[in-house]
Structure to design on (396 residues):
DNA sequence: AATATTTTGAGAGCTACTCTCATTTGGTAG
DNA sequence: CTACCAAATGAGAGTAGCTCTCAAAATATT
C-alpha cells in the first residue's frame, strides 16, 4: 500500500510530534531556569505531563533534548542546492548565509538559547563534539559531489576535517553566541580558503 | 624546567602511584576481556583489591581510566624543544615523529589497545573528542610562541582548529589503529601545509 | 462494534557517582 | 617505643540516568 508522502498524517503521528515538541520545550525551559544538572528527567516528564518512561521513548538521553539540531537538515538541503559555478568554499559560505537568513526570528532565539546552554554546561560539550564528528562525513559528502571525487578520498576527508575543526574553534571563540559565531565563521572560511597563512 | 627525577618519594606516594596503576591496568584488562559497558566499577575495584569508593578517589569517572593520555605531556615538551629554524608545521611533524619513535614497545602496545578501545566503544568517543577540544588551546599556544603572535589571535586559533580537525578526521579514517594514524597524520599535515587543495 | 496494533504508565532493577563517618595506616615528634 | 596528627580507606546510604517488563489505554482497521 502506497501512502501519501508527507503532510499531516494520521492523528497518531501528529500527537507524537506534539508530545515530542512539548518535552523538548519544557526541557529547555527548565534547563534555562534551574540549570541543566539540577533538572531531572522526572521533572521534565512531570512538566510535559507524561510518565518518565515515556520520556525515554521520545529521547534516548537527557542530552538529546538539547542536542537535536534542527538546522542540520536545512544546511544539507541548502548546500546541495547551491549553483555549480560557486567554488566549494563559496558554496559553503553561501549555504551558511542562506540558512541563517531564512530562519524566522523565534527559531533564531531558540538557537541562541540552545547554543548558550551547550557552551555553559560542560556535560553537554562532549556530546556536541560527537555531532561535530559526524559533521565530517556530511561535509566530505558535500565536497565529494562538488569536486567530483570520492567521499572516502583522503584529501576530501582531510578538507572536511579541517572545516569542522575551524568551526569548532570558532564556536569556542564565540563563547556560545550564535551571532558572533556566524560572523567568525565567514572569516574562518576565508582564512581556510587562503590556505591558513599565519 | 621540571624534568625532575621525581624518584624516591615517601612510602605513601609510592603506594598511591602503585594503586593508581593497578586500577588502570585491571580496568583496561577487564574492558578488553568483557567489553567496556559490561565491566562495572565494582568489578574493577574488586580486581584491584580496593573498595568501590576508593576507585572514585583515584579516577573521577570510569572513562578516565581509559582516557588519560600519557602522550600529551610528552608532546608538549617535545614541541617546545623543536629548533627555531623549523616551520610551524615542520615542528609539528617533527614532534610527532620524535615522540612516537622514543616510545618503548610496551607503551606502544598499550597505546594501541587504548585507541582501539576508544574507537570501538561509542561511549568513549564523546569524552575523547572533548580532549581534542582542549587540544585547540594547546596548539594555539604552541603556534603563538612560534610565530610570535597572541594565543587568542583569531588566525592562530583558526589554524589550531584546522589542525585538530584534521587529526580528528585521520583518527576516524585510521579506525583506531595508531600505526595507520601515524602515517595518515604526516600526509594530513602535508596537505594542510599546502593549503588543502582539492 | 469487534479486533488488531501502537502507545503509555507503573514499577522494579542496574549502575555510575556522591557524601558521610568511623577506622586504619603512614609520617613524625617527644 | 609511644603518642599523636594527617591522610587514605571502607562501609553504607542516597541520587539520578537509563533499561526492561507487563498490563492498561488509545488509536487504527475491518
Amino acid at each position: 500500500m502506497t501512502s501519501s508522502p508527507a503532510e499531516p498524517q494520521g492523528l497518531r503521528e501528529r500527537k507524537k510530534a506534539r508530545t515530542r515538541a512539548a518535552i523538548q520545550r519544557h526541557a529547555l525551559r527548565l534547563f534555562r531556569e534551574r540549570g541543566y544538572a539540577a533538572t531531572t528527567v522526572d521533572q521534565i516528564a512531570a512538566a510535559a505531563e507524561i510518565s518518565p518512561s515515556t520520556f525515554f521513548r521520545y529521547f534516548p538521553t537527557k542530552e538529546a533534548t538539547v542536542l537535536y539540531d534542527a538546522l542540520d537538515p536545512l544546511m544539507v538541503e541548502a548546500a546541495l542546492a547551491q549553483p555549480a559555478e560557486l567554488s566549494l568554499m563559496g558554496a559553503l559560505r553561501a549555504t551558511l548565509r542562506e540558512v541563517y537568513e531564512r530562519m524566522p526570528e523565534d527559531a533564531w532565539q531558540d538557537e541562541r538559547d540552545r547554543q548558550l546552554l551547550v557552551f555553559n554546561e560542560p556535560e553537554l560539550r562532549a556530546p556536541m563534539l560527537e555531532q561535530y564528528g559526524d559533521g565530517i562525513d556530511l561535509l566530505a559528502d558535500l565536497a565529494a559531489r562538488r569536486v567530483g571525487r570520492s567521499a572516502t578520498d583522503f584529501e576530501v576527508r582531510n578538507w572536511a576535517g579541517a572545516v569542522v575543526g575551524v568551526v569548532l574553534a570558532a564556536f569556542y571563540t564565540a563563547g556560545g553566541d550564535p551571532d558572533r559565531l556566524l560572523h567568525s565563521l565567514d572569516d574562518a572560511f576565508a582564512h581556510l580558503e587562503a590556505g591558513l597563512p599565519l
